[in-house]
Amino acid sequence: MQAWDVVIVGGSVAGMRAAIAASDAGATVTILSSSQPSSFNDDAITSGLASSAGETNSAEHAADTHRVGVDLCEGDIVASTTGSAVSHLAQLEKWGLNLRRDRNGHPYLGQLPGQSNPRTAGTGDSTLREVRSILEEQCIKRNIPRRGDIELLDIVMKNSNVSGLIALDVQSGEIFAIQSKALILADAGFQSAWTGDSRAMGVSSALALREGISLADLEFISMHPLTVADTSLRLPLDLLGSGGVVIGADGQPMSMDDGPDALARAIINAGGASLDLTSIPRTATSWFAGVANDLHTRCGIDYSQTLIPLMPVANVTIGGIPTDATGQVVNGGWDSTVKGLFAAGDAACSGLHGAALNSGDHLLGAIASGELSGNAAANQAASSKFSGSNQISVALTEAHHLHDSMLSSAGAEGVSAGMIQSTLATTMQTHMGTSRNAGGLKQAAASISQLQEANIALSDSSPVMNTELISLLRTRSLLSVASAAVSAAVAREESRGNHVRSDFPTTDAEPPNHSLTSKDGTVTSLPLRS
User: Fold this and answer.
1) Which pLDDT belongs to residue 61?
2) 331, 344, 393, 466: which has the fewest C-beta neighbours closer than 10 Å?
3) Residue 253: which domain range?
4) What is the full DSSP assignment across 370-436?
5) Looking at the domain assignment, is residue 454 inside a domain?
């Protein structure tokens, strides 16, 4: 059985940044990813990195984050993350990020929705790709092993402490165990419940639920305002910091003051809007050549001459596995941590974003949470010993039995995983969109319950490269988290962020709390940290 100080699940920006931090702190580290190491699995990041590089301090950045997050952000997390943003940007630049620059040679900072000052740095439409490439290089430099096509099956605990994990190698069909002193969950959120695209299936969140860990703030999902109507093409928000303007039905520019989610809601409520990119200066067009090519090849649009129709779609979930200020998973209260278990990036709910994402904070949050959790996990590993061998052996045997049982049932009648995902997406779009009410949420809960009871068809009995089996496992995970999200939406009887209850008035009379949703759908409140 393999043994590593720190195992990271998810080859995302957050996951790779965590691996780098843990390795630099002296831990032995490996990364397991459900996709290939070079694949994009966090493409919901749609803008550059926000920092107060052009400001006196980070106070206004923090204030904007709180304001856009509708007062559901955690003050300590916001302060530490926004305060460290400049150093994160400098580190990326030191590692080779070729930032877009202004006439004075300083990083070009665009003012995006929700920002009171120009604050977002990047490389035009390629920021995520460039950041991922740089982090991959740093992982290679440190000889950090990264394995792709690995499906996480189980988290192994001993006395509420993490001992290791059970996983499936999709290519070989081998089920294997890894012993670890610390485990960082850094894969995707669960927005595929709305989009049906199978990219973000909430696997880590589902496993946390199965281990009795309540999930936080599942009712909040961020919408991307710059989505080309009738497509899934999402344009970078950085366009709005380079001369792009969103035009409403009345022909006037739409307000961007309250952040990208508020802009998305306004577009949806208006029945659509248009993006005008004709005023982008020639000096900036080279930074958005990818956008021009995508619009031309996929939509037949020349953005230098034609307005682009917009209709926002669900982009990324905000809630997930609750963590403390170091990235350690908490369960039931801020002082109740799960030893050895950490979360970062889209899998985590750190309290940075509150009820809505602000421009540039998504990438910043992924990098900051990755570094924090990596350092904390390495410190945990340094003071711990490997344990739980017996529990891992039992879990491995149970995983083999379950795997064999599923494969032996191949050929039985059932509904395809794709049909289940499509039906779920329709349900979530209809009843868990930007306007919700008790009746619709009740219908959503009933529909998801029926989907959970349905037999998912499996025709392939081979253990090798059985993508049908993987789809089945991920679909079950997605359904369990989607069900918990509906329960959280039912419990929050107020409108906050993109959670708009049409059957309850908007009020701030009661102090906002985080919603915690358990495995059985029970929702409790966790007050904001003081």
Assistant:
1) 98
2) 393
3) 226-314
4) HHHHHHHHHHHHHT-----HHHHHHHHHHHHHHHHHHHHTTT---B-HHHHHHHHHHHHHHHSSSSB
5) yes
C-alpha dist (Å) from residue 395 to 303, 353, 390? 55, 35, 9
Residue 442 lies in a domain: yes
Residue 175 in tokens: 């089920």
- Give which of 145, 125, 124, 123 is closest to 134, Cα–Cα: 123
| pLDDT of 340 | 97
Measured between alpha carbons, how far is 74 from 483 in angstroms, rounded to an integer? 26
C-alpha to C-alpha distance for 432 and 417, rounded to whole angstroms: 21
As beta bridge partners, residue 341 has 183
Asked which of 260, 279, 314 is the last residue of a domain, the reply is 314
Residue 235: give its domain's CATH number: 3.90.700.10
282 inside domain:
yes
Per the structure block, which two tokens stand in for 417? 């995983």
pTM above 0.70, yes or no: yes
Q: Which two tokens stand for residue 69?
A: 């997050």
CA distance 262 to 450: 33
CATH of residue 443 = 1.20.58.100
State how beta strands 175-185 and 337-343 pair: parallel
Residues 307 and 408 in one domain: no
Count the domains in the chain.
2
Helix or strand run (H / E) with residue 109: none
Rg of the Cα atoms in the chain: 22
Query: End of a domain among 277, 299, 314?
Result: 314
Q: What is the pLDDT of residue 41?
A: 61
Chain center to CA of 20: 20
What is the model's pLDDT at position 206?
A: 97
**Which segments in the chain show pLDDT lower than 70?**
36-41, 505-510, 530
342 with 377: CB under 8 angstroms?
yes
Helices 467-491, 417-431: crossing angle, 10 deg rounding: 20
Asked if the structure places residue 183 within a domain, the reply is no
Same domain, 403 and 493: yes
Pair 298, 396 in one domain: no
What pLDDT score does 530 carry? 62
